[in-house]
Amino acid sequence: MSSTIYEPVRTPPPALGGSKASSVRVAKVLYGAGEASRSGIWVGIFAITMSFAALTSALFVRQGSAADWTHITLPSILYANTLALLVSSATLEMARRAIAAVATMESRAARRGLGWLLATLALGFVFVAGQYEAWRQLATQGLYLATNPNSSFYYVLTAMHGLHVLAGLAALLFVISRLAAKPAALRPSMFEAAATYWHFMGVLWLYVLFVLRTKL
Amino acid sequence: MEEAPAQQAHVHAPPEGFLRKYVFSLDHKVIGKQYYALGLLAVCMGMVLSWLMRFHLVWPRTRIPGLELLSKAGAPGGVITPEYYLSLLTMHGTLMVFFVLTNAPFAAFGNYFLPIQIGAEDMAFPRFNMMSFWATLVAFLVLILAFVIPDGPPISGWTSYAPLSAVGKDAGPGMGWGMNLWGISIAIFCIGSLLGALNFIATTLDLRAKGMTLMRMPICTWAWFITSCIALLAFAVLLPACILLILDRTAGTSFFIPSGLVVSDRLQPHSGGSPLLWQHLFWFFGHPEVYIAILPSMGIVSHILINSMRKPLLSARVIIYSMMSIGFLSWMVWGHHMFVSGMNPFSSLLFSFPTLTITIPATMMTLIWLGSLYGANIRISAASLFALGFISMFVSGGVSGFFLAQPSIDIVLHATYFVVGHFHMVMGVASIFGVFAGTYFWFGKMTGRMMNETLGQLHFWLTFVGTYCIFMPFHYLGLVGNVRRYSAFVNDFTGPLMPLHKFITIAALGTGAAQLIFIFNLIYSRYKGAPAPENPWNGTTLEWSIPSPPPWNNFGGKHPVIYHDPYQYNVKGSKGDYIMQDSPEPSAG
User: Fold this and answer.
1) Angle B413-B414-B420 (CA atoms, 0-180°, nearest 5)?
2) Domain count along chain A
3) Which pTM does this prediction carry?
4) Is residue A203 one of the residues assigned to a domain?
5) What is the number of domains present in chain B?
6) Using an 8 Å Cβ cutoff, are B76 and B34 in contact?
7) Structural domain contains residue A50
């Protein structure tokens, strides 16, 4: 029972440039909730993973429960969508690097970062539109939610993933609007959280695609 | 308390205006109280439903005046139909498990005290916190909407087993829109709980005050933290399960409905689904849910016992590690709810072993409580009495778990009142006792006024004796084969058991009436109780270092610095017999 164990004082992460007053303000906020957003996003990712794990096990159990499982052919536009989503992760990474330079008060860097972010956002919307187009193509083949168990799981998994992607797009929009209006007010932790989440959307999509393609 | 050099970090500004202060509040303390109020409302409703059921069981033909106003079809002339009995059963279970046992010990007390006990000003994400309460409230309203729609509440039980829960109206009254409302309500509840759990975890990990290492957190903080880890995973599974159920019901999919199913003489237009799949998904959530209900109470009870005994437990660490192992094991035992569901018998055996293993950490905790109590000079108060009552209920209800964990015995007992007695004692009443203990202990901190001790102790004895009178006979009923879920026992072999049933019903009505003392005490003390000092129980943890009730930012703009383990009681050479966690005084040892 020693009384000498202290946790080191956590120094708040540096603010994204801006005046001294604003960085103090950012630091104040960060001391309260800055780091928590990092753990928060990982905890959230964990929960989402769990939900998709539950759906995966449901899919495998359902495949084995009756002989009515007919494998549907995935629309080929899905691969173009995959590419868009993966490239969006790359553009987001470029944005992150550009924005890291904002701390050195380079306004060109902020603009460049903003450009990359807009590209990420656009690719995200391309992905969502592509997913919608894939649904439409399946529908023209007569494959709807209730047509057969495989199409049921296809719609459920893609819709669940799509909803999470839309949430990611909302987060990106928020980051972009902050960065465009006053870059100094953007918390690095907020940006990091949005970026982590967006990368996770790409990983999750690869997983969903893998599950949908798997034929047991 | 030391002033930290860093400037104060306000997570949010001080609230202004009635709406921001008391309704759409971001303050974890207000949100905690909101959860408590919702839990109180739900427990009152759930209790009234259980009265109606108990009354109907022993006087099945007696009219209950006014009941026909609740449901014309369900209680024509005030007499409950067998179907409506099942509706009451479903709503009782759903209200109690989700809106009482999850809300009160975990969301209510956890929200109020977790940030304070770790020295934080608020939760990590106050907006999420508000959203989680409002989602829970909406879920509650959607659920009780089932009472007023023509269809009535569902008759599927709180577990909503497929395929009958998935086929729609054909499955009986309440299985149309009533069941839809149930599914939607639980899905919304999942979202609220997920947000809450995320908040608890991030708060515990990141907002601890200087010096508050993980092992210096009070045991109840640990319990809330472990509970939130369990809740995060459990509700993340129930949510997709509910979505699949709703799709089966409304969109014509066949996740849970098998081929060739005929319900009410109608061939269901579904094929190939697996009813067992629902049970697996549901119980994968459902068993951890049992620990979501009980772990916070274990933490609260440990916290209160230590304070009342004025000495630390034999080992706080073993309690914490036991709670962790219970949380871990809770993921491997869901199949023990399905021993009679047609699961492969080998699976039953596999689920039986980890289930029995859970008895080890549970027994370790019990032995630590009892061993610490041995020779302790415990201060008797309503709070400590309920804490002792918790141990009693936990042991009495838990012992029957040894039997039920074995498939060969469970097959005989599963559909009987034995199981009803088991889970009501070990998870229902025990958890509620933790809530009562917490209320008597913390009411002064939460409202600024102490609760009346005499009324509290009277409430304890009536409730303690009453709940034993209700739930112990359930075990005997089960052993002689009294099946559960039946709405009445008329002209069959259970006839000789009716006096016992009557005894239970009278005990239930009496114990329920005794709760009026508690409600009266709550309201009376809120306005007329003795003013609460800062530290009425001479406690050591951070909640006792701030005024009662705490200011909106908890520590008045200061950052507490933590020097000690949480339970420095009976310290030789200190001024009192205890040292506060944030006191720089040297500790014992």
Assistant:
1) 95
2) 1
3) 0.93
4) yes
5) 1
6) no
7) yes
